[in-house]
Amino acid sequence: MFVFRLPGFRQLLLRCNVVTQFLHHQYYKGMKLNPSRAGVWLIGAYGDIATTLITGKIAIQEGLASSAGLATEMSPMNLLNICALDELIIGGHDIFSSTVKEQAEAVCDRSRTFSYPLLKQIEQQLEKIGQDIEVLPELNWEFTQPGEYLPSLVELCNKFRHLLKVFASKHNLDHIVVVNIASAETFIPLTAAHENIDEFVKLIDRDRKDQVSPSMLYAYAAFMENYSYLNFTPNVGASIGALQVLAVENGVPFYGNDGKTGETLVKTALAPMFAARHLKVMSWEGTNLLGNGDGKTLSEPENCKNKIQNKAAALPQILGYPVHAGVDINYVPSLGDWKTAWDLIHFKGFLDVPMTMQFTWQGCDSILAAPLVLDMVRLMEFAHRQGEHGPMHHLACFFKNPIGVGEHNFHKQYEMLIDYAAKHLTQSQ
Amino acid sequence: MFVFRLPGFRQLLLRCNVVTQFLHHQYYKGMKLNPSRAGVWLIGAYGDIATTLITGKIAIQEGLASSAGLATEMSPMNLLNICALDELIIGGHDIFSSTVKEQAEAVCDRSRTFSYPLLKQIEQQLEKIGQDIEVLPELNWEFTQPGEYLPSLVELCNKFRHLLKVFASKHNLDHIVVVNIASAETFIPLTAAHENIDEFVKLIDRDRKDQVSPSMLYAYAAFMENYSYLNFTPNVGASIGALQVLAVENGVPFYGNDGKTGETLVKTALAPMFAARHLKVMSWEGTNLLGNGDGKTLSEPENCKNKIQNKAAALPQILGYPVHAGVDINYVPSLGDWKTAWDLIHFKGFLDVPMTMQFTWQGCDSILAAPLVLDMVRLMEFAHRQGEHGPMHHLACFFKNPIGVGEHNFHKQYEMLIDYAAKHLTQSQ
Amino acid sequence: MFVFRLPGFRQLLLRCNVVTQFLHHQYYKGMKLNPSRAGVWLIGAYGDIATTLITGKIAIQEGLASSAGLATEMSPMNLLNICALDELIIGGHDIFSSTVKEQAEAVCDRSRTFSYPLLKQIEQQLEKIGQDIEVLPELNWEFTQPGEYLPSLVELCNKFRHLLKVFASKHNLDHIVVVNIASAETFIPLTAAHENIDEFVKLIDRDRKDQVSPSMLYAYAAFMENYSYLNFTPNVGASIGALQVLAVENGVPFYGNDGKTGETLVKTALAPMFAARHLKVMSWEGTNLLGNGDGKTLSEPENCKNKIQNKAAALPQILGYPVHAGVDINYVPSLGDWKTAWDLIHFKGFLDVPMTMQFTWQGCDSILAAPLVLDMVRLMEFAHRQGEHGPMHHLACFFKNPIGVGEHNFHKQYEMLIDYAAKHLTQSQ
Amino acid sequence: MFVFRLPGFRQLLLRCNVVTQFLHHQYYKGMKLNPSRAGVWLIGAYGDIATTLITGKIAIQEGLASSAGLATEMSPMNLLNICALDELIIGGHDIFSSTVKEQAEAVCDRSRTFSYPLLKQIEQQLEKIGQDIEVLPELNWEFTQPGEYLPSLVELCNKFRHLLKVFASKHNLDHIVVVNIASAETFIPLTAAHENIDEFVKLIDRDRKDQVSPSMLYAYAAFMENYSYLNFTPNVGASIGALQVLAVENGVPFYGNDGKTGETLVKTALAPMFAARHLKVMSWEGTNLLGNGDGKTLSEPENCKNKIQNKAAALPQILGYPVHAGVDINYVPSLGDWKTAWDLIHFKGFLDVPMTMQFTWQGCDSILAAPLVLDMVRLMEFAHRQGEHGPMHHLACFFKNPIGVGEHNFHKQYEMLIDYAAKHLTQSQ
């Protein structure tokens, strides 16, 4: 008289034992006669997230770290015919000059996340990846000085497309996932021109840098090359109608915006509990302290707008009513990449009695973000191979503001991912 | 291009507007030609949970408090043909002499949960309910002094059954839900005799008070009268095989054990987030401070065994691996009914980097527990009218140790309840 | 071989047993042949602090509450010849019309701090005090509507002085302590005129409401009547040079500003520990959530300036170096008078290893503030009887921004109070 | 009209500017014609505290780390004629075989407190210190297996004294401070024999290992060699009357017990605030989670007795009344040396309103402990040169259970240290 509630094939898969997993895996490996060689192009390749992603990917490949943090290493996602980590070829660009090793050592010193002995062991691989990282300060034109020469949007776009072409050809890549993990951009008010691809192209042609942000240009370039675009930042990216249409037309997947790594993750995992118990949330106040480059950028109100907006949407949707929900983002340099968030939840229960819950989240931003990027790169590359295109709604659980998905309840979002995997596993039988 | 993931009738119902809800409700009300009169028998009727339940039920009926805390007042549960609050007739017994008003004022003073002006307004209703509360010290034989005369189990059982008969006949009740909200009992090791109804009856006949606990006797008596039994305590109650069989044979619903109101609620709502992100929980340490009678009883290791055991099961099931998870329960008299729990979650992310989350939960135990009892009474009475019997698995989300359900993920448990409601709503169309 | 470090008479007093205390007390009582009748004039008499002060004072007098929260009820302060609580006569004014009872019930409902049965028992005393509370909306001219008739500063000052005269004469008072517990005022930039009493009087004569704030006018009026002035608010009050000189000339005590009740209290009690251990504080970030009228006023940046400034001064003084110390004040209506502060302290220890401490303070603002006002009223009235005047530096421990005292270490400030009491006790022998 | 409260020479010194400090320092350096060469003998020399102490001492000497954490590097302590860090010669023993470098790398990996590049830079110094660390498993006889050969107490004592002699002679040392930083011992009930030096010597002669613990034997040996003894552990050490007398007779300083590094430090810094405000503490509940060897030992109730006792004494002394104060110590392996403590303080204010404060302390045990040991070694060596002997009461602020000092208020304890320094500075002029 013991009940498990999820019947059918999906449930079976979820519960299948190690042997079955192994067999499945072998089966898929067998299928992949000519293993796809997939590229990952990191925009912001010398940032903390990129550096952590590169270090972690190699460490896991080499058996120097566990697969913790990677959702694609768990059942049922690991049963899909996704790329192995060593099948992903990494390249990218950033706006300043450095080396991967230098950046890795800097992260080491600042964040105490990985150790020097580890870096020593993977020194050669780090150096090799470094050969595919370009320095392109002009591509982040927001930071150029007044008076400085700046190529036109058309020139910049062509430059970026050229880079992708060279990268693909050098490594003989079947596909590239372009990943935006750059800094927060200045807020640009959206107009009708952003909803129409022809109008949008005109903005580029007319070099309207006040209406086209780098994140949009990257997406445009990627789609024109028939590559996938993943936007992990709060920047607008491919979320405007014009670019969504282009992606569908060119048959490529895309998704974003704003990776859900810390406070919002916890918020969207906890709020459903209050909803399910009919505990009326009166106030949900959040304080975010962070000291990395991201924090510095976000401490300027203009750059923070997209972010705060992304964080605000979740609660009313999950709870079903408007909530007094303050979100403070404060720059605290000493914390570095270790984001500390404190939330106070003031809620009413039976007989309208007020009660409180509070939580503190102390996580390292890039350690939390990097594996999500890897997970999504794998899943987008897989989707592309399956002929899927447009917004990848099943990746909603990875984002604060998932494009085209109104559901913010983390657990329901995660079910969407599980359902996606289960559907593909059923089909492949 | 906006997606909601739950398709079909159930989804429609969840989103139906107020007008539709009203029509549904009227429709069902119309169906209920002879509205069922349902009784609720509270074991521990002078305890804080019972007192809060009684006060809250009346306050909501009278429009003096919102319906916060009651899950059955939310869609889709409120679309079922469940009893209105004023259709529930309350009675019960306790082991000491008092009045409902006295107890309500004591809760007022100790816990500052409801106000004297409120009590003033519902004075008469409190008094009326008091007429159905009996004093039966002998029914909690654990607390009797050595040498004191104690009736046999058979006599006690008959006494209790007689009480239920009188209550039913006085109020012309169609059904009674017997609710156990008494104190924690001493741990009794279970034997084969507890799994066989004939053997179990023999234990009663032989007056084996060392093997039959009050919570078992209550369940037995309830089932023999064809009444439902709801066990909100960590006590064994109806969870032994013998009693489960009896319930099924006599066609009555039952469920338990150990209401999920605080720390475990949060734990089972949060742990799935760590699982879904492949964040490896290394330690999950919980400290529970409480100062009510329950806390005093639990501070004695023997009484605490059931509870700690109930709390420990959830994490390994949700996470899929064993976790270092300490649970301390400390008696802190000054806190009264305001339970304060602090949990530290120490987990590993990408590159095996250790990170931490901590939360503090400050809730009033009886304010959290009372509405769950009301919710379940309504749903069990409804189930009984539908001819359902045996363990009510769809109530799993209300319990730390849901009988016969291995799933501890709160969100999946809650889906079971939603599915149950949706199924009944579809059928009734 | 057991050492106590404080030698001499003071130490003896601190350790003297109950018998000695009793004898001392009797001795002083005997001295006070004609017990002084002292008045307390509350500016903001219908606010939460005033209401709590009045309720608490009566409750303690009547033996309905303990003396918790009152520092003057502890040794050695209680050995001084200070007024008994029932020797303090309370009056005051506010800008809106109400009754003490109404306000007390409102506090009851909002803050659940005291109970209706208590209010019932002291109903008559509340009513009696109400007879000495006036409604004077014009005295808070910041809140008057444009176009509305507004008396000149001279008229307002005379009006207020008249009120004090009437109060003194009605109750045959020897002295009055005027207490400012009104709302935060708009920030007024200080000029040379504020440092010179003659220039300041000219500002009043010229009706310069842009340069004279209500808190200054109250202080001016009090001093002109030879009464003490206690400023519990962050408002400027008597801290300008002009008024300090006037107080000294007229021989009256005064003190302020900004009562130290919550986060800053904890901060100035904890920071010395970090200093003493040479633990280098890198960041001390504070978040204050509050929902009372004070919180609403402070949520407007202009009104918040004095407050934030008062909070910022303490850390660099105690630690000896500048610290990254953010202070957020957020208005969270649901919290009412229950202020919740969360502080994160990020500090470096040996080998420059970063570590963290965090604390959450959940206190009721008026419950924390009211007894401090009573303590200081008693001590200022005592000082006045001793012929002391000017700034009462020994009260520094009660303020965020103690006038003329650079020391912010709470423990050293408290020693100043103990030393003051000890000195008076030694002299009186 | 600005007041600082501490008058006289001491105040001047505290405020003296950098120039003055420099001159003083030079003056004292000049005095020290023949700089004393002082030894430090670490019992538990391969433990985390010792390893951290050695690493930090060298790092600071070499300018590779700041002096954070060292109280003796702050005014006025740094104005005393104490040893420079490089004048302290380190030796010691442990019960297992290892090297300093191995231990340092292990701490690196486990606790992420210092970095490999740092270790690389000081490799040679670490190796050199290693030459003075002996392996002596027999000296911690509690951990020997039954049946194993074990020397008598007299033999062990002689062995240890011999080690000290060799160390002194090898390095030409004027004095040695013997430091106990070994693990917690089993609790030994004290008897009259522990209070009398002759009786105590008989216990040694009779090889009564059930009545003489290692920590006592170390103290005895040190005193017999006329060396100082510093007991940082909760073990009994020199606190028994017999050994105190011996120290005085032989003219050597000693002190202990149980370093105050974390939760108790915060407790004794915060409790005075509650006392000074007459906020009545109803409950002060503390939970300590730790995962180092110390934590494992303390998780066994017998070893924990000394510790819990040391932690319990402080509150009633500071507050002046008994308090419900639970202290849990839980072993959580994943935390390693990072101790996490959570305290809930439930207190009553004005009108007996209950309020709460809670804090979380996340500190690395050895990082907090190591500098205190260095501070005290310097101060004890200084005291010895001044001809001082017996219990060093001015070091009370460093201990949970300061021998012979009843004062637990951290701030008053710290004043004792400041007063001591000020007294010596005044005398030296």
Task: Considering the chains and any ligands shown, give keywords for the structure.
homotetramer; 429 residues; alpha/beta; 7-stranded parallel β-sheet; 4-stranded mixed β-sheet; 16 helices; 11 strands; disordered N terminus
Question: Overview of this structure, please?
Answer:
The structure is a homotetramer of 429-residue chains. Chain A has 429 residues and is of the alpha/beta class. The first copy, chain A, has 16 helices and 11 strands. In chain A, the strands form 2 sheets. In chain A, strands 3-2-1-4-5-6-11 form a 7-stranded parallel β-sheet, sandwiched between helices. Chain A has a 4-stranded mixed β-sheet with strand order 8-7-9-10. In chain A, helix 3 crosses helix 4. The longest helix of chain A has 21 residues, at 365-385. Chain A starts with 7 loop residues before the first helix and ends with a helix. Residues 1-35 of chain A have low confidence and may be disordered. Strand 10 of chain C pairs antiparallel with strand 10 (354-364) of chain D, so a sheet runs across the interface.
Task: Count all strands of chain A and give the number.
Answer: 11
Largest sheet of chain A: 7 strands, parallel
Indicate the percent of residues in helices of chain A.
Answer: 40-55%
Largest interface, with Cβ-Cβ < 8 Å? A-B, 69 and 69 residues
Gyration radius of chain A, to the nearest Å? 22 Å
Query: Which residues of chain A form runs of ≥5 with pLDDT under 50?
Result: 1-35
Shape of chain A: globular
Look at the structure and give the mean pLDDT of chain A. Answer: 89
Give the percentage of residues in beta strands of chain A: 15-25%
SSE topology string of chain A: HHEHEHHHEHEHHEHEHEHHHEEEHEH
In the sheet with the most strands of chain A, the strands line up as 3-2-1-4-5-6-11
Assembly state: homotetramer
Beginning-to-end CA distance, first to last residue of chain A: 31 Å
Derived structural class of chain A: alpha/beta
Query: How many distinct helices of chain A?
Result: 16
